[in-house]
Amino acid sequence: MTSEGPSSPADPTTPSPSPSPSPSSAPAPSSAPAPASASGRRRRPVLRPVLDALGGLAVPLRTPARAAEPLFAQAPKRWQRWLPYLIAGAAVLSLMPTTIVVLTNDYKAGGGWAGALGVAQTVPLLLAVTRPLPAWAVVLAADVLGAVLLVGADGTAGRPWPWTPMAIVGYLLLMVFLGLRESVRILVGVWLVTGAVGVVLGAVAPAGTTNTHALLFVLCGVVLVMTGALRGLGDARQRIAEQESISEAERARRTLLEERARIARELHDVVAHHMSVITVQADSAPYRLPGMAEPVQQEFAAIAESARESLGEMRRLLTVLRGDGADGERAPQPGLSRLPQLVEATVRAGQPVELSMATGVAEGVPQAVDLSAYRIVQEALANVVRHAPGAPTRVSVTADGGEVLVLVVNGPARDSVVPLESSGTGHGLVGMRERVRLTGGTLDTGPLPDGGFRVAARLPLTEDAS
């Protein structure tokens, strides 16, 4: 370092100044791109709102308007709903004076006729926002009238005819409004009428004019195809949305019917048990109660026979509810006494669950209530595992005033666990509501402020308890 120090003051006297310009020249290239990048960063915030606004027009363009409804009437933003009126108004304000000036100065048409044609060919564009088909009829009639009047004008020779440039611009804008509103059949008819009118007028074209009917015919077809395609896309999306809503309603209805059939199959076991007890008691009554009179024995025999017939009818109904190829469940129907095993299986799957059961709550409970309470807890735990894995969950079952109170509360999800899909019916709240409705109870469900969920069911122990 000491050797470099003395050499630096000696360098200015020597004819080797190359090291000094090199540092000065090095920053120059690096400083040059800086303003460019800064300007690039400056342009992006200006262009981004414009691009976002243009992208936001995609949805209104694809959304078909209803009859007699303004274009973009269903757009989400106010400026989008006003945009068709602004475009039509700007077109009228620019095309009307231009049409009058060009017809008067270039085509040498009379001032009165030029003003009338300027109004008739442009003002209907405002009507096209809501009623494009009548606006098209007015504009086409005005354009034809203008072409006929320009046949005898002094300045028509060497100029576009039958459609002036201003008429072509206004007509194409009208086609945009028309294509976004009307059906394909109407668009094809408008296009063919435009071509036919141009051919008829072309047959009487003044000498030396530039025929523009083919140009308008081609441009009109292109605009109608593009706008009609946008409308067709919007119609297709609307039909898909309607079908999805119908399918969703059908799925909900099918889920409800499947859950009701499942409940009916489960209740078969409950009712069949009681009917079997009635049959056995009626058949064994003459042996358990000796000395019974003959009419009484016949009455018990009739009761037993009716019970057996009822069991047979229930089995046939159960066959229909099971459907083709469905096997019946061979395990006994669960109840509140099996809740500890259910909670234990859920905990083994990785879900933290605490169970609190009042002493003797599972004793003397009607079988329908017993089964419904178990299924509600089962489905609630399955939903917790499915939608809030790892959330701490509390299950409480108590008896109060002739009712069984079932409460399942879980906190927000924490970590993922092994799904316990087989623990529930797969129908969620639909099945819970149907089971509560079966027993004449009430169900209260909803989210908690901390992000958890609560399921509370009241199941009456007797029919008049509800």
From TrEMBL:
Domain of life assignment: Bacteria
Biased composition (Low complexity): 1-11
Catalytic activity: ATP + protein L-histidine = ADP + protein N-phospho-L-histidine
Bias type Pro residues, positions: 12-32
Record-given protein name: histidine kinase
Domain Histidine kinase/HSP90-like ATPase: 372-462
The organism of origin for this protein: Streptomyces bambusae
Domain Signal transduction histidine kinase subgroup 3 dimerisation and phosphoacceptor: 259-323
Keyword Transferase attributed: yes
The enzyme's E.C. designation: 2.7.13.3
Transmembrane annotation, as ranges: 82-104, 110-129, 136-155, 161-180, 187-208, 214-233
PANTHER family: NITRATE/NITRITE SENSOR PROTEIN NARX-RELATED, NITRATE_NITRITE SENSOR PROTEIN NARQ
Alphabetical keyword list: ATP-binding, Kinase, Membrane, Nucleotide-binding, Phosphoprotein, Transferase, Transmembrane, Transmembrane helix, Two-component regulatory system
CDD domains on file: HATPase_UhpB-NarQ-NarX-like
Region named Disordered: 1-43
A GO molecular-function descriptor: kinase activity
